[in-house]
Amino acid sequence: MTVVAVAAGMVPAVVNRTSPARAAARVAGVPAGQPQPVTKAYPHAEQGILPPGNPPANIAPSPNFFNSCSGTSYDDSTACVNAAVLAIDAGRAAEGLPGMVLPVNWYQLSPQEQLFVATNLERTVRGLPPLAAMSLALDQAAAAGAANGNDPTPPAGYPWTLWGSNWGGAIGNPLEVVYLWMYDDGPGSSNIDCPTAGASGCWGHRDNVLLNLACQECMMGTGYDATGWQSYPAWAELLVDTSGPQSLAFTWNQELPYLPGSPGGAGLLAPAMAVVSTPGGGGYWMASSNGGVFAFGNAPFYESMAGQPLSAPIVGMAATPTGHGYWLVASDGGIFAFGDAGFFGSMGGQPLNRPVVAMAATPDGRGYWEVASDGGIFAFGDARFFGSMGGQPLNKPIVGLAATPDGQGYWEVASDGGIFAFGDARFFGSTGNISLARPIVGMAAVPGGGGYWMVASDGGIFAFGDAPFRGSTGGQALQSPMVAMAAPSAAGYWEVSANGGVYSFGVPFHGSMG
Prior knowledge:
It is built from 6 helices and 25 strands. It has helices at about 80-95, 110-125, 135-150, 175-185, 205-210, 250-255; strands spanning about 1-5, 40, 135, 160-170, 220-230, 230-240, 250, 270-275, 285-290, 295, 315-320, 325-330, 335-340, 355-360, 365-370, 375-380, 400-405, 410-415, 420-425, 440-445, 450-455, 460-465, 480-490, 490-495, 500-505. A hairpin with a 5-residue loop joins strand 20 (about 440-445) and strand 21. The longest helix has 16 residues, at about 80-95. The radius of gyration is 24 Å and the shape is elongated.
């Protein structure tokens, strides 16, 4: 663990941090044959540290997640995750805090994103502001720290006023390392810089996780290396009070829609995930992650999955051409059909390389496509396969899909605004080479097929081809991030936010849940 505070723009002197090569105490509860977990902390200055309220003694994990998790490789198994969450819940209970509830997309996050989310969940439950985003520059520094077995430091010239960093090795899951940093960081723990009670490194990781940052915004870098500590997994994170523009890798606002308890509107118990128009634009349907469907204007309600068990959250929606039915798609590729929507097959129950993120229907309503975050396309019914980005390198994951009017092609859009056109879909431009304030979360095509719009999580709209720009919420303060858009005609479009708010530009407003 390292924490440094100086004037913005200054570079700290190199400190003689303790090397993890020094033997750590044998951690109680680690089964024989498993590597001993190691974490390290550097004696820190108190400036900027939240009064820690540290536990009076180490809290041994209960249940003992070392019996359920591997220390030799990344372990995101259900048994490991559940055991680690229950242990964190027990640690929190000693402080009178509620248990940890993971976001519904936890298993779709990368190891680095999981560490980012878990760290923020420990901050926000104590009333601290979350770190706003993962910075590309800090991610690279954290990755180097994980690979080299040492606390990471911000790169030279990086704008900061205060920062702290943590490291841990021979630990298979980020929830485990967060537990060790937060609840088992005193004498006799894996913290090799806390050899005796009163040593300055004791509970240093916890102090860093709860660093009292005056966010300008606050940024985080997270690193994971599969063999970074004696051929075992290693983790590192940087928490930084940043000033100046940043290139972002992943944001807290991106994750908010998947978090239970995120801001909701009237009766919206789960975050909104999709919006689709009725024919002619006289209404629209909104779908939430728990399978709820909300109908506005002339959109009829044809039942939903709300209140029924789901194997995975709902992530997308499409309507039939008659306006008398719709489909919902879950992140595991499962399809749920209502009204006159026919079921033509799905990826539900089949192995996926990456989760499904969106769907689109054919013009006659007798088929549909699903798209996964790696760009893989799955075609059902009369939907034809015209190619995909599956198996090809992507700078950013795919987040949306739109079909051409004749059903003979489709576009995929990535979170950086990169557009990939297949079949008779034409390329009209993209933001793939532009630095965006917030990531793209969805797209809609002009009904005539001559252009498309993209929407970012801050509501910014990017129009290409003959798609007209009718306005946006970009630059406005939002209660909740945008998650999707729909366009009934070339006249305009709707944006929908995670709390169910609908924002109308060039087309009528028919109501919302926000």
